[in-house]
Amino acid sequence: MPIEGQSPDFYHQSKKIEWEQSGFPTNPWERTGLLLNSAINLGPKSVIIMMLPGEGEYLPIEEMGRSFRNIVRGSDTYYDSLSPSVVAQFCRESLADIGMVARAVDVTHATESVVVGYGLTRAGEIYGRRAAALALDFEYEHPDISIYTTVGQTSTSSNNDFRAPMHRSQLLLELYKRNSRWSPMAEIQSFSSYLAGDLPPALDVLVKNGMVERDKEEKPHRAAYVMGSEQMVEVPAIRHRVRITEDLVHAVPDVLKEHGYVTADLMSRKLQPGYIDTLDPQVLKDEVSRILHILSEKKYLMKNMERVANDPVLYKLTKSGATVVTQLIHPLYMVMQDNREFIQTVDTQVVSEVRARLPEYAREAVRRYYPHSRAAQIQRMKELDGEIMKMLDISGPDGVSIRDLELMAGEHTQSVVNRLNRKIRSGAIRKIDHPLGPRYVRVTNKTS
User: Fold this and answer.
1) What angle do CA 218, 220, 222 make, to 5 degrees?
2) Tell me: the pLDDT tens digits for 160-200?
């Protein structure tokens, strides 16, 4: 295994270079998944792909660091001073493994071979560069959407062979095919590659990031009704809702015949055409829900408790989710399919533009990713330590509770607990019993 560093003959023209590279699959979806998993999920990696030379050439590791810093300079992030070793690490641990970059190995000396730089493979030129340009262009044009938080986070509890970005992308694609139709969990499970236990957390991530909408109706809206014990001789007069009540009562038999039950959602959809110019759809739904409840109190309708208990949570793609599909995932897939006409369009409209203004696109990309980076997390933990110690300094002998610190820092409880435990182990603070619960005080004869 060659080591990484500077060759003893780095400045000599007589170096003997051999290339080491991994393969790239032929299946378009596998290609798409690999690039989302390991190449364009992080803005800095897309920048590296765009700056590296083509097949048969390489940038020395030191030059990789300089080039990267020059490109992103002015981003006001940790990446402005990124070391060459970190740039090389991106290549070694992500891009090389999926066949996007090749290792340039100096084998001049028989006793030791050294990785002296990296360059794009043929696959990197054809697929990687276009994918990176699409990703950089997407985030530049959509400042409210982050590729990393949407599909790029690779950490997953799944035991499946696929990684999280491929999962989420497939999920978004399938939901897109449903034309904004609400889909229950069971239906989504049937077309997703997730294991049953992994699907709900995945949907939670997409909901949190605004890619998928969850039907969060309150129980009155989710209540289902069937015919009750009392026969309706005439339409009951419900104050301020006479017309809607009449229309609803006349429509109930048709909906019952079609579905076997009625809900506020079903009934408001049925009535919507007649109120399109007079009532907002949500207002109409609220009114319908109240009327159904009143009719059930009068025993004209009866709640179908089995239906209420089993009423599924529904999901559908949001506008932002559709944007990710149409402007990123689908174009990426088209490139991976070797669609020549589409590739020509990408080259002229995207790749050439990104290459011409790479520093501008690169700065936006690293700024977008930086808050999620390890460097930002370390910096935040240092700041949290300082905030904790400052609060302990002014708290006096009664100390402070975890809840106090959590509210002060704006961090999750576990993050605060982890930092407190580190400080306890270092001897900087200690935990005390208190009538209001455990509290923490600073050890005044030691420093943090």
Assistant:
1) 70
2) 434 678 888 888 998 998 887 888 887 888 877 666 667 88
